[in-house]
Amino acid sequence: MFELERELTRLHRLHLLKMHDAATAAYPALDVLSYALLRHLQEQGSARAVDLAEQFHVTRATVSRHVARLMEDGLLHGDPDPDDGRVAWLSLTEAGDAAIAACMAARQATFDRLFATWSGQDREEFARLLRQFNDRVEHVGDDADPVHPATNGMQ
């Protein structure tokens, strides 16, 4: 198991480095969290800052700083919530769409190079195993964990 932990740590470090390099080559102003926020909004359409903080397990202040910078850069805009004027629904601008598209293309090119020598079957098997692993990571220790459900502090 030590080798597996070591390789997962290495994968995490290398993935962040290589994907960040690819994304910033396409759009230098984006850090890892800013990219993730834009990518999430591209997929979801819009979200509130509080929802983004929860989604990415960061503080509201962290999201607020990133959102403010992304808005200053013209990549995001906020529409007031009709039910609560204190809240804004954040979404991508056209410039935000273009920035995330450029970053995704650069990242895809990196993935294409990484998997160039893999067969389609190997890529599919790797994706299946990685999805299985990620699903397990997502729920380890919580109430949905079939092995060790959360005990809420109870033993």
Mean pLDDT: 88
CATH topology descriptor of the largest domain:
Arc Repressor Mutant, subunit A
Assigned CATH superfamily of the largest domain = Winged helix-like DNA-binding domain superfamily/Winged helix DNA-binding domain
What is the first-to-last residue Cα distance?
Answer: 26 Å
Instruction: Report low-confidence residues grouped into runs of 5 or more.
Output: none
Q: What is the name of the CATH architecture of the largest domain? A: Orthogonal Bundle
The number of domains: 2
Quaternary form = single chain
Strand content: 5-15%
**Rg (CA only):** 19 Å
> Major sheet, described briefly?
2 strands, antiparallel
Number of β-strand runs: 2
Give the count of helical stretches: 6
CATH class of the largest domain: Mainly Alpha
Describe it for me?
This protein folds into 2 domains: 102 residues, Winged helix-like DNA-binding domain superfamily/Winged helix DNA-binding domain (Arc Repressor Mutant, subunit A), CATH 1.10.10.10; 39 residues, no CATH class. With 155 residues, the chain is mostly helical. Strands 1-2 form a two-stranded antiparallel ribbon.
